[in-house]
Specification:
Structural class: mainly beta
Distance between the termini: 57 Å
Strand order of the largest sheet: 1-9-8-10-11-6-5
Helix content: under 10%
Radius of gyration: 31 Å
Mean pLDDT: 87
Number of strands: 36
């Protein structure tokens, strides 16, 4: 900053002598004693980002940020000034031109970062806001001073970038032949299959490094196919096991809510459970599995997925009384060896008094086969970043896709799918045929891997903020 060092004592003395008499006692000028900052804004700022060329060489790209777009709040009680919306990642705040307005044109001084030295604020000089800075305002009559702390917030992470953390390498997860994870009560529950038996493990969502086996109160052991039959609805986990529908709030204590002979429990909205019956018909229950009724379909029942089934339930953006339930999965490879793509169904669940009980619609994008979701082993889907995110292992049936090459995303309810523009598998990721992913209650994405036993947790950066999804998933 180009400015003259100022002695505060000398300044106060000088300002105090500014009262003048212009021809008599009635002409005495009284200067205001109020001291306050009334406005603060930033000018144009530089932003520097590192990019990688096609040859792999790194380079620095410079751009500008219009600082006036970012509003600064002035807390006159706490004497703080700050921007609630952080500046973009990479913005240079060590060289800031800012505009400061004071009440009654009181003088503004800037305290040195490393000492008590004060210098005059000059609107054309840059200020280093890489750390919080103290501004001192002196009233025009020199009798009053007020200090403000100015904090210029900048995102510490680049937006639209996915950040991963490996949490664990667990032997029980490594040896699983099938798995499904669901969030419940601040924990992540992991249902695993080991051929002829099953198990449930849990870890706090804040941990993820330590996975403890859960005992349950149902007498017999956890079924081997439990991982195919668990959904979460309204903060409760529901599990189909040996002819009964069970409900739990913690994964340990379960109670029977209904009895039925089902092929699998496949989905849930906020008011209904959905299942495939023994004849592979899609049915639903509005009373936690006590009674069931057949669902209407707009296409052949033979197009329903029966394996690797997951779902996404999203509140409608148009009507508070409706939800969109999307069912995604594969058909049996033995019966349909020529399948290249996953099978997607969608339903508008209307809970208003004017409900029309719309049927399930088969999503069939035949016009763009290149934009369909591949038929992948251990296909898993979640609601994330305003759309549906899907991933899985190697191709099933006639699908020749390699496993875990990319995440697929759809922003139109599962009609068209593309490689995710922001989410990629973490470096060092290794997984066998059994795989699952889930979103915890804080909006973070979890990955669980057989063979390696890896557990990963990640999130898309929106600067320093994490956007929570307004949907839930199996």
């Amino acid at each position: 900053m180009k400015a003259t060092l100022l002695s505060v004592a000398l300044m106060l003395t000088s300002v105090a002598t500014l009262t003048s008499c212009l021809g008599g006692d009635d002409d005495v000028i009284t200067y205001p004693r109020d001291a306050a900052i009334t406005a603060f804004s930033l000018g144009t700022l530089n932003r520097y980002l590192t990019t990688t060329s096609r040859t792999g060489a790194d380079s620095i790209v410079k751009s500008t940020v219009t600082g006036s777009y970012f509003k600064f709040y002035i807390d006159q009680v706490g004497r703080t000034i700050y921007n609630p919306d952080s500046l973009p990642y990479g913005t240079d705040v060590a060289h800031v031109i800012c505009s400061i307005t004071s009440r009654n044109s009181g003088r503004v001084l800037v305290k040195n970062i490393n000492s008590d030295t004060l210098i005059y604020y000059v609107s054309t000089d840059s200020i280093d806001f890489s750390v919080p800075r103290t501004l001192k305002v002196v009233s025009l009559d020199g009798s009053n001073t007020v200090d403000y702390t100015v904090t210029v917030n900048v995102h510490k992470e680049e937006a639209d970038t996915f950040y991963w953390q490996q949490l664990a390498t667990d032997e029980n997860i490594a040896s699983a032949t099938g798995m499904k994870a669901v969030p419940l009560g601040g924990k992540m529950l992991l249902f695993c299959s080991y051929g002829n038996r099953g198990a449930i493990f849990a870890s706090p969502s804040t941990d993820g490094a330590n996975w403890m086996p859960l005992s349950w109160n149902i007498g017999s052991s956890v079924p081997a196919n439990a991982y195919r039959n668990v959904v979460v609805m309204n903060g409760h986990a529901y599990l189909y096991a040996r002819g009964n529908i069970l409900r739990s709030d913690d994964g340990t204590t379960w109670q029977v809510t209904g009895a039925a002979e089902l092929h699998s429990l496949v989905a849930a909205s906020s008011s209904k459970l959905y299942a495939l019956d023994e004849g592979l018909q899609l049915i639903s229950s509005a009373d936690e599995g006590a009674t069931w009724e057949k669902e209407q379909l707009d296409n052949s029942v033979n197009l329903l997925p029966t394996t690797d089934v997951s779902f996404v339930c999203t509140p409608s953006r148009l009507d508070a009384d409706t939800e969109i339930v999307t069912l995604i999965g594969n058909r049996d490879e033995g019966d349909y060896p020529g399948d290249l793509q996953a099978h997607v169904w969608s339903k508008v669940a209307d809970y208003s008094v004017f409900s029309t009980h719309d049927p399930w619609l088969y999503v069939n994008p035949d016009d763009r086969a290149d934009l369909t979701l591949p038929c992948l082993t251990s296909l898993s889907t979640v609601s994330y970043d305003g759309g549906i995110l899907a991933a899985g292992g190697k191709g099933r049936g006639a699908c020749q896709d390699k496993g875990y090459q990319q995440f697929y995303s759809s922003f139109d309810g599962g009609i068209y799918w593309n490689a995710s523009p922001t989410c990629a598998f973490p470096s060092g990721f290794q997984c066998g045929d059994a795989f699952t992913m889930a979103i915890d209650e804080d909006g973070r994405l979890w990955l669980f891997c057989s063979d390696s036993g890896q557990v990963w947790r990640g999130r898309k950066s929106a600067g320093d903020d994490t956007t929570l999804p307004s949907a839930f998933t199996k």
